[in-house]
What we know:
Layout: H1 14-20, H2 23-26, H3 30-46, H4 52-70, H5 83-95, H6 108-144, E1 149-154, E2 157-163, H7 164-189, E3 191-192, H8 208-214, E4 219-220, H9 224-229, H10 232-258, E5 266-267, H11 286-309, H12 324-347, E6 349-350, H13 352-360, H14 366-375, H15 380-397, H16 406-412, H17 420-423, H18 426-431, H19 441-455
Parallel strand pairs: 3-4
Antiparallel strand pairs: 1-2, 5-6
Helix pairs in contact: 3-4, 3-6, 3-8, 4-5, 6-7, 6-12, 6-19, 7-10, 10-11, 10-12, 11-12, 14-15
Arginine is lined by residues 22, 26, 82, 108-109, 112, 318, 320-321.
Amino acid sequence: MKLWGGRFTKETDKLVNNFNASISFDQKFYKQDITGSLAHVEMLGKQGIITEAESLEIQKGLKAILFDIETGLLEISDEYEDIHSFVEATLIERTGDVGKKLHTGRSRNDQVALDMKLYTRDEVLAVDEELKELLQVILRIMKENTETYMPGFTHLQKAQPVTIAHHFGAYFEMFKRDRSRLFDIHERMNYCPLGAGALAGTTYPLDRELTAKLLGFAGPTLNSMDSVSDRDYLIEFLSALSTIMMHLSRFSEEIIIWNSNEYRFIELDDAYSTGSSIMPQKKNPDIAELVRGKTGRVYGALVSLLTTMKGIPLAYNKDMQEDKEFTFDAIDTVKGCVSLFKGMIDTMKFNNTNMEASAKNGFTNATDAADYLVKNGIPFRDAHGIVGQLVLFCIEKNISLDDMTLAEYKTICPVFKEDIYEAISLKTCVEKRLTIGAPSPTAMNQVIKICEDYLK
Ligand code: ARG
């Protein structure tokens, strides 16, 4: 069933119909479609383009369709090309001639631009809400672990000691930036394309300010050709979603490493792990692996839409119908991943003893030993060389810097005194890093306070 049969003398080929139709996926925004139509007809009535009585009758009909879809009384039929055709045809079927006035001064081009915007505008907020809940869990873990030592890594080699609070604090910052990206997108996208018509506006005296206001936009878009062909906001949203996935994927990778038999820094909860069909001993971090894996799928949506858009002349072209399925999939994927990830880290246990033991070996205090020499008058470059010799000595004897005797220290450099042991203890290494952003509990508590205020 079509809205545009007039100038055709032949039926469309069945395969063409299937190829052309979008109703199987754009029915996802039936509610936005009806909401947009309600604002449109309210405005048509106020402007005297149709009578107030007609406007009210159409509004009543549209509301009834919405109600019937939501309560299951009305099934969206895939006989129609798209959700716009379905709603309009159903309205006409139910209200007769008055329903035929709904589409006055409107095109499916501005209609679909509006529907997709309304749909994604809500989803930007929904993703933000998921991120907020994830941040609450991360903050809880930070607060409980300002003195839980672990090795910090560079090149996946032990580097300097940090704490769990500090490590999780890094992810707090990442997801905080993700939220601010979503906020920016929401601001920038919040202009209403309705009234742009097919591409060149209309000759009816539409009140675009009014429809924009009714639909919660900051105002109408300012160029009708751009209005129907702009998909930048989707590209920005998919880019922000890709960045969220990149962050989750890095975090997942760490969880997988920490959960490995070699590291044993954490233990995932049974509810968030899976077993093997053949190896009875296995408890696998499948959730983290799947989150890491699904990252590719979200990147795919971004690259897909960028590619779809790159050669499209102004204004609307049917290529743009391809903006939907990948975007919907990416949104659902990200929301699912953030939510599962949150549950996974909320329930996992830290193996503090292993983490601390790991921080203690591997010379994570070597920088602090060099700093000790600097504080005792040795230039840093020389101190670096001296500690390099200490490390070599320890590697040969298979001990750590803390295990060397003072006499051994002194044979390499006479400057060392008894206070070296305190200077390179794990506690000192962490607690003396006092600058803002560093891992000491003092600095960390200042940041935690800022994080708390941010989440309020
Ligand atoms: N299903 C179309 C889309 O998603 C709706 C707009 C159709 N407009 C048109 N002139 N064919 O883009």
